[in-house]
Amino acid sequence: MIASSRLVLAALPDIPLIREGDDLPGLILEGLARASIDLQDNDLLAVAQKIISKAEGRSMDLRNVQPSLKAEQIAAETQKDARLVEMILKESVKILRMRKKLIIVEHRLGYVCANAGIDSSNVREMDDNESMAGEQSNFVLLLPEDPDKSARALRDGIRRSAQINVGVLIIDSHGRAFRQGSIGVAIGIAGLPGLLDLRGTLDLFGKTLLTTQVGIADEIASAASVLMGEAAEKQPVVHIRGFPHVLREGSAKELIRIKERDLFRQ
Predict the structure, then answer these.
(1) Using 50, 70 and 90 to split pLDDT, how confident is the model at 136?
(2) Which of 3, 67, 188, 194 has the fewest CB atoms inside 10 Å of its own CB, making it the most exposed?
(3) Interior CA angle at 151 toward 192 and 40, to 5°?
């Protein structure tokens, strides 16, 4: 652990709307300059999943989706768009629960999440002949193909340009069993631990910790999501300084509980 009693988070201003192929490392470095933040070794950058997905071309036009019979049946039961249900099925390995307007799945990446993480909020793409006013977008956004790989690419791009060693988190909003409200979680990690294993260390009174593991990347992600917001805040990148742990190679896969140890899925 690095001695630190202050964790400072700052959302970067004026990040533009992201399109496929945009240079995210360059745009983030420009945002840091606008915010007068001098990037330092061991800083962290939390980045909203949506701008990663947009830059990687992970949007889908539902007008091009042909729903299967299974998707039609599930759509009738859940009162969801059958084309969206088809995409949920393609992005998932198993449906765990369903109710009206909601499908809980095991995503192909291992997460348990609603609607396979597919979202239509803050997604807007138009044909040349479409008008902004009064038009309902047919586009949805899928999670990145490999969020850990995306985080590594972003970290490496910043390191090449700025010669600074940072950690990168890609953040999405997930609900939680037994708790109301969504929170930010890390779905992609590069250059910092996902899970902090404190087993074998001593507590304040010298007792050895036997089971304590901390989802440290999720804790940071949740803090960053407070600044990112969920609506029209337009703050998809958050700079973090004062992370009190040594940076190391990490992965969001560290945070996924294996099924054999998940009492709620046995």
Answers:
(1) low
(2) 3
(3) 55
Predicted confidence band at 177 (pLDDT cuts at 50, 70, 90)?
confident
Give the CATH number for residue 39.
3.30.1330.100
Contact 52, 144 (CB under 8 A): yes
CB of 99 closer than 8 Å to CB of 115: no
The confidence score (pLDDT) of residue 50 equals 95
Q: In whole angstroms, what is the distance from residue 139 CA to residue 32 CA?
A: 30
How far is the C-alpha of 50 from the C-alpha of 29, rounded, in Å?
A: 18
How many domains does the chain fold into? 2
- CB 198 within 8 Å of CB 212: yes
How far apart (Å, rounded) are the C-alpha atoms in residues 114 and 176? 10
Return d(Cα 190, Cα 44) in angstroms, integer: 10
Q: Which two tokens stand for residue 33?
A: 């300059």
Residue 117 sits in the same domain as residue 189: no
Instruction: Please indicate, yes or no, if residue 1 is contained in any of the structural domains.
Output: no
Whether residue 165 sits in one domain with residue 50: yes
What distances in angstroms separate CA 12 from CA 39, 46, 149, 154, one per listed residue?
Answer: 12, 10, 23, 16
How buried is residue 259: exposed, middle or buried, by Cβ count under 10 Å (0-12/13-18/19+)? Answer: exposed
DSSP string for 140-202: EEPPPS-HHHHHHHHHHHHHHHH----EEEEEEEEEETTEEEEEEEEEEEESS-SSEE-TT-B
Same domain, 205 and 93: no
